[in-house]
Amino acid sequence: METRRALQVDAFADEPFAGNAAGVVPNADDLTEAQMQAIATELAVSETAFFRSSDEADRRVRYFTPTTEVDLCGHATIASHAHLLEDGVIDPGTHSLETNVGVLDIEVDEDGTVWMTQDAPEIREVDLDYERVADALGIDHAALEDVGADFPLAVASTGLPFLVVPVNFLEHVSAMDPDHRKIEDLSDEVGATGIYAFSFDTLEADSTLHGRMFAPAAGVPEDPVTGTASGATGAYLREVEAFDGDFPNEMTFEQGHFVDRPGYVRVRVDEQVRVGGQAATALDGELRAPAVEDGDDIIEV
Predict the structure, then answer these.
(1) What is the pLDDT of residues 224-257, one digit of tens each?
(2) Were 98 and a residue from 12, 57, 59, 114 both cysteine, which residue would form a disulfide, CB within 3.0 to 4.6 Å?
(3) For the whole model, what pTM was predicted?
């Protein structure tokens, strides 16, 4: 049975055991879909990035949660390119990445910050009952209605759709006790991967907002720090004309503090939507790739 290098890299943090852990498999060219899914299940982090050769970009990536493949993942992109820089595979500069949603530009700064250009934003308001959404999140519906006039419920996407739920105060964000089945039902109804709830009430004075993201249908009950949702929410804030027309050049979204994985996502929204951050390697080793029978994708038991 062959071995394969695999890493755990913690994104949106400058030291291990913070931010959002991502699996990284740097050489996945000859792995089948079943093998990649099995490895992602074994690594048991929210997403694992598998790098492959590409005819359209510098490299190709596929992302798997412990239960399914997803088209895009911000934190795994940040984590994997931070690893490639640390390993000497790439230099600071601009690199292209083929994903399931198209070819994206990845910029790597000299200080190790990785910037991911996301897909063109799509925002659509949704008509959902506040009591139902609040019930799914386990908080009082008044926490949503209080800000709903200025910040409506919407599905926002920059490659992966999220139901964006504004909340009035941080105390309600911290008190969330989500019902995963109800969140799955809501997400499925509006065509979203999960729910990103946020408040402008933050822990850090320099932060723009505090968010939490729940995607149980994708095998992620709560994601510590979510790059794709941060980019989508940044685009949403521009769409609803937040900040009284004085839109900031850069925002900082904090997340993960209530699951003991604090992290910070830098978000820029102008002609394009970009999310950025640093990452730290927590684990670097080898695993045994599961065997596959010849001619099919059935893993041997």
Answers:
(1) 999 999 999 999 999 999 998 899 999 999 999 9
(2) 57
(3) 0.90
